[in-house]
């Protein structure tokens, strides 16, 4: 009876309204977080098509007469060319793992999913404010700019629904030479992640792989009789000696992280680890800096 009630139109509407009510809160949190980053001119200091003045340089063979700034050249014996700043829009693609494992939270901390959502949206806010396009790698829609795109992304991130225990990036062709950020606990099968990053690297896409974990997943503070259950409830395991599992668990976690780091090294991506007991501001600054270095 209880399971049937979950699928009634009234219950579906109620859950949809609850999800919609959280949209402004999530976006506001992301915007406040983004405000901690000083944008400036977003690091685009190189010559190219645009209107903003960048610098004068000495004229070289092959420069047209129209490109010479005669007012600046009249101040001396040499001819100078006026260069404008490159302002072509960049593209930032984001993937947030929304699998059941990302809902884990212990000790009153924020869930891995909420932290990943907030970080991703904060990056999107920074990109949009800088005149860039941004999008979600899990959606078929192309990346766009503007605040309307932020709202679309927020709605997609909060959509909910049936999800597996562990997530994986969906195969999708990303824009050539874009930047990307994948946020997940990466505790599921690693093969889809390898495929996604390899495909992205083939198109010149570089970015950051962010493993988001709760501190309890690192420390494994369990001993004695313990019942382990997946977040979806599909898997359940009971043991009387949980402490004896600690060594094997930590070894496998270490091996997984090493595999992710090796994958990033081979594809030109960066690997970052974030624990939910750390500040979101520090994580965002680290991500922002890593993406700026990829320009």
From TrEMBL:
Pfam family, one: DUF58
Ranges of residues in domain DUF58: 56-257
Name the record gives this protein: DUF58 domain-containing protein
Organism of provenance: Jannaschia seosinensis
